[in-house]
Fold this protein.
Amino acid sequence: QVQLVESGGGVVQAGGSLRLTCAASGNFATNVDMGWFRRAPGQQRELVAQISSGGRERYADSALGRFTISRDNRKNTVYLRIDPLEPEDTAVYYCAMGRTFGRPLLPHVVNYWGQGTQVTVSS
């Protein structure tokens, strides 16, 4: 049983920063990508960023410049830093894990999802 547990969400003022953390536990392959999706109110879920086991990063166009994904394989943990935050970043952020073989981490290849953490950015 693989579990992904997110933390670090909350209410933050625009212009501030936040770091989300996702800790993975259980038995899973080592060569898996981990990533972050988000679902804003009234919007579809979208991939924000992903990172391979080797550290290769991939970002959605909307995340370039303000989002940074990182990963600590020894701790089975992935992070997402958002700086600076904008009101449009308000969403539930979900951690995800899947084998992509170098391709984008699309929902249909995600094997495991976290429960989500709410990020609310006030203007």
Observations:
- The chain has a mean pLDDT of 96.
- The first strand starts at residue 3 and ends at 7.
